[in-house]
Amino acid sequence: MLDDRKSQVLKALVEEYIRTGEPVSSQAVLDISGLEVSSATIRNDIARLESYGFAEQPHTSAGRIPTDQGYRFYVDHLAPAKLREATRRRIDAFFHAVHRQITDVLRDTSLFVNELTAYPSVVVGPASSSDIVSDIRLVPLGGPVVLVVTVAENGRVHQDFVDIGVEADIQTIESAERLIAAAFAGRRLDAEDAARSLTRSEVPAAVKRVIAPVKDQLVADAADREVFVSGAAQMASLWNDLSMVQSLLGVLEEEASLIDLMSDPGGGTQVRFGSEIGTGKDLAVVSTTYETATGGHGRIGVIGPMRMDYRRTIRVVEEVSEGLEDRFGAES
After folding, report:
1. Which pLDDT tens digit goes with each residue over 307-328?
2. Full 3-state SS string of the chain
3. What is the tens place of the pLDDT at every residue in 99-112?
4. pLDDT for residue 250
């Protein structure tokens, strides 16, 4: 554990490096920290931070830069930031003006967070299992394929092409549609009793042949999550390393990788760095959880270089998360 003075020295070093992107000299630390000590004391403190693994010297005669461990200590001991009133008003106005279905809200939120932070943003939607079903429709497309349209009470629409294995007549499909819609109406997609009720023996065999694959698809849909990304085009200005940009573009194109990147091993607001994520690269992820009234939860966050503005970024994602929860009617 660092004493108060060394903590202030590290804070000054990290924040100056975030601001300039250049190694920080002991004189700069002294000027920024406001500590009433000698320059020799600051040099000794920085040398001690280096021995602890909180700072490093990129090359001889240069100043110091923070290490992953230095960033971790800095983030873990951050005082909460206070957003400017104008920014808070923008966040409030954004959610007061949103009256669209959940997919549009999440997409626009990713754009909004990117606009506020200037970092690529990611919004992971709640699993479809939390959706309350309003209606289900089966649309015959010819042959053995039907389009299954599921409408949730939150406005989210799922569409699946399902091969039912046989070419059923319209009356059979309509019968299956009525039974499936009645079983799931007002329930979540992962409701086991809804799925079980569709296996009752009095249902004609032809209708059962339609119901079975549609029910299986609905159950599979329950694990689906929507993922929205904004600001990928800004990465070239954030990282000078082209290979890093190319690697991140690959991650952004894969939903599973993005969901893993935004995962919440400890819940709540998380700040993770390259070594902690497993990349060992100049990468930081700031994310937090939001909840919906039906018990679902998703993640919202940004990705950027390790020298990002953590104090403001953390506050922005937390404020926007609170706005999403208010929009979705989650209890505080």
Report:
1. 899 999 999 999 999 999 888 8
2. CCCHHHHHHHHHHHHHHHHHCCCECHHHHHHHHCCCCCHHHHHHHHHHHHHHCCEECCCCCCCEEECHHHHHHHHHCCCCCCCCHHHHHHHHHHHHCCCCCHHHHHHHHHHHHHHHHCCCEEEECCCHHHCEEEEEEEEECCCCEEEEEEEECCCCEEEEEEECCCCCCHHHHHHHHHHHHHHHCCCECCCHHHHHHCCCCCCCHHHHHHHHHHHHHHHHHCCCCCEEEECHHHHHHHCCCHHHHHHHHHHHCCHHHHHHHCCCCCCCCEEEEHHHHCCCCCCEEEEEEEECCCCCEEEEEEEECCCCCHHHHHHHHHHHHHHHHHHHCCCC
3. 667 888 899 999 99
4. 80
pTM: predicted TM-score of the whole model, two decimal places: 0.79
Q: What is the mean pLDDT of the chain?
A: 86
